[in-house]
Amino acid sequence: MSNHDSHSAEHHHDAIAEIKKVTIILSVLTIVELILGFWMIGITSEGMRLAIKGVIVILMMAKAFYIVAYFMHLKHEIKNFIMTVIVPLALFIWFIIAFLSDGNSFRNLRNTYDPHFKEQSTIKVEEKHHGATHEATEKHEAGAAEKHEATEKHEAAH
After folding, report:
1. 11 and 23 Cβ atoms separated by less than 8 Å
2. DSSP one-letter string for 93-122
3. Where along the chain do its domains lie?
4. In the chain, fewer beta carbons within 10 Å around the N or the C end?
């Protein structure tokens, strides 16, 4: 066995060990996220729920780092190439945050300046009964008769 073959076998063993380590880290992070997510279901405090969501987002970003660094081989690249990928990614994340906050701001302003505007999801729709009851029909007819009499009295007075 030559020196080159032993070096290649050692490098192969190191690469497999590194992949196993990253896979275990990703698995542990995923399990922690799931535990936090299921634990959050029973919590009623909004502040605590928001804090748990923040922790889950941080764990997700850590997983994204490991995936990009190891499985997309960015960790072993030169610094300039890494910056070529990371800077546009950071700008893209900033754009998403900016557009979400702008959309939320527009929704809140729309509700402030248009007093007659109502979100479609908050409008309650009355149920229409296909078979009207006898009492409802009588009330409707009595109201129509009163309205008709009032109109006739108004016209007679003029």
Report:
1. no
2. HHHHHHHHHHHHHHHHHHHHH-TT---GGG
3. 1-76, 77-116
4. C
State which amino acid sits at residue 47.
G
pTM for the whole thing?
Answer: 0.51
Mind listing the pLDDT tens digit for each residue in 84-106? 878 888 898 889 888 888 877 77
**Four-residue CA torsion sign, 56, 60, 65, 70:** positive
b/e 72-88 (16+ beta carbons within 10 angstroms → b)? eeeeeeeeeeeeeeeee
In angstroms, the CA 88 to CA 44 distance is: 38
Q: Judging by beta carbons within 10 Å of its beta carbon (0-12, 13-18, 19+), is residue 155 exposed, middle or buried?
A: exposed
Residue 117 neighbours by CB under 8 Å, 6+ apart: 110, 111
State the DSSP H helix or E strand holding residue 67, giving kind and residue range, or none if neither.
Answer: none
Q: Contact 74/89 with Cβ under 8 angstroms?
A: no
